[in-house]
Design brief:
single chain, about 500 residues, mainly alpha, 2 strands
């Protein structure tokens, strides 16, 4: 009897029989072993690199194990750890890390160990970025990964009760997954970038502007990277629609920022916001450019009109305008007690100045940037960034009782430690960091994948705007994230030069 199978089933049966009796190609004995053998040297090299980085970090921790404080930042984080208090002018995630890592053992030693390991992980992520996205050789990736691990702007903060190390590690992850999204253009990667971005601003709010800008720019760059060569094809319309979909999805993911603002308001018993003193900060930074007509409240206008009494035009007094008694913000708080109204008026006043006299704000930005080029000033800024001021007796008592930490009363404390001396002697490198946008412009022209370099150029440029236009004075610790990008831009340039020289070196001699 002949069974008449349905046609689809018959076809599948025949194909299955053919596959069963077809000789298996490329499955000869030893082939898989050869592949594994080819992968193992590269894998072993990466494992060795990771071991070297972490061993170096732990060795330096053994050589320089002393905890350091930078007041008033460290004091705010310690207060968050002890009481759950949420500061109005800085992020607070690091304070909870101090609670989990330092409060129960009554020591700052566990946070220092974790910070050293996090700094090592940042260097490893840096090397992976070099290798996976810019396709640099292992030797170049490892060399610059080690340079990243030895960056003085990283090493010195590994010993401080400060958020710089954890925030830089999260920022390195943001850069990694942003580049992964540029390469693969998958929505889940975009979601990872946004989730890490919220974690990042929870550690350090100075990254907010670059995060907000790249929320829109990242999907646009990703689809311009693949869509521009296809404009003459019919499929370009589909690519454009997909790109717009990703832009909308990225903007929609800003709801995570709303969740952060809600949590901040809930924990601090205030209105949802990124920070509660944004207006005070802007008014203080732009104080030399303010005029009475900018004020949205006549009482604040009167304070600005009498600015000569507290040096409102002095560039060096901008930090005092926010925090010192008798200066701009303190005077305004004595008049307007309501915090919400206080911040609203200062924010509106600052934005009025920006709208009416943008060139004046640009002038302040340029003057702040030029402050980094003063040789004596940059060395002074480096010394003050090691900590300055004086601890109160109550603070000394709290540190001794809760963390068994004996601090000096006056900062900066001397003699300087090993890493502090390294930080101070590395001042010539800081001049390289502050021209990083220029280095990235060169790297973008040289790089094989310009979309990757363009994204990092945007990051470096926005971060430099933050440390000049939105900072009261030049500060070496402000440029710490820019240093990471600077090393990456130099690595791109070195790799491009090495690629061009390699074929010439391989040609036979005439």
């Amino acid at each position: 009897m002949v069974v008449d199978y349905p046609r689809r089933f018959s076809d599948k049966l025949q194909i299955g029989m053919l596959r069963a009796y077809q000789p298996k190609r490329f499955k000869t004995p030893g082939t898989q072993a050869n592949r594994d053998g080819a992968k193992s040297p590269a894998l072993n090299a990466w494992w060795l690199f990771c071991v070297v980085v972490f061993a170096m970090k732990l060795l330096l921790l053994w050589l320089d194990p002393r905890s350091k404080l930078f007041m008033s930042d460290s004091g705010a984080y310690v207060q968050t750890a002890l009481t759950g208090w949420i500061p109005a002018d800085r992020s607070y995630f690091y304070g909870y890390l101090i609670r989990w890592l330092a409060l129960w053992p009554h020591s700052f030693a566990p946070p220092l160990v974790v910070q050293a390991l996090a700094s090592g992980a940042t260097a490893i992520a840096f090397a992976l970025i070099c290798s996976r996205f810019f396709e640099m050789s292992k030797s170049i990736s490892f060399v610059f990964g080690l340079l990243c691990a030895l960056d003085p702007l990283q090493l010195v903060w590994e010993r401080y009760v400060m958020t710089e190390i954890f925030s830089l590690f999260v920022y390195a992850l943001v850069v990694y997954w942003s580049l992964a999204y540029l390469r693969d253009r998958r929505l889940w990667q975009l979601a990872v970038v946004q989730a890490l971005s919220v974690l990042l601003i929870g550690f350090r709010m100075s990254y907010l502007l670059v995060i907000q800008a790249c929320t829109i720019l990242l999907p646009l760059i990703a689809f311009a990277r693949c869509g521009l060569p296809l404009l003459h094809k019919r499929t370009s319309k589909t690519g454009v629609l997909t790109g717009l979909t990703h832009v909308v999805a990225s903007v929609t993911m800003l709801v995570m920022h709303g969740a952060y603002k809600y949590a901040n308001g809930r924990l601090s018993n205030r209105e949802p916001a990124y920070l509660d003193e944004t207006g005070a900060h802007l008014a203080a930074v732009w104080a030399p450019a303010l005029k009475p007509s900018d004020a949205s409240d006549p009482r604040f206008a009167d304070i600005i009109a009498n600015g000569d009494q507290f040096k409102i035009k002095d560039l060096q007094s901008r930090n005092a305008q926010q925090y010192a008694q008798g200066f701009l913000i303190k005077r305004w708080r004595e008049i307007e007690k309501d915090r919400r109204t206080n911040d609203r008026v200062t924010r509106e006043t600052a934005m009025n100045a920006l709208r009416r006299r943008p060139l004046a704000i640009v002038g302040l930005t340029v003057k702040t940037y030029m402050g980094y080029w003063n040789l004596r000033a940059i060395q002074w800024y480096a010394r003050t960034n090691l900590g300055y001021g004086q601890l109160k007796d109550s603070q000394l008592k709290t540190l001794a009782e809760k963390f068994r930490f004996q601090a000096v009363k006056q900062f900066p404390a001397q003699p300087f430690s090993l890493l502090q001396r390294y930080f101070l002697t590395a001042w010539p490198y800081y001049f390289v960091v502050i021209v990083s946008p220029l280095v990235y412009a060169i790297a973008t022209c040289l790089s094989r994948d310009r979309a990757f370099a363009l994204l990092l150029f945007i990051h470096a440029s926005i971060l430099m705007v933050v440390v000049t236009a939105l900072s009261p004075q030049p500060g070496i610790r402000y440029i710490q994230p820019v240093s990471l990008l600077t090393l990456l831009s130099i690595a791109i340039c070195v790799d491009c030069v090495a690629r061009r020289l390699r074929p010439a070196a391989m040609r036979p001699a005439a």
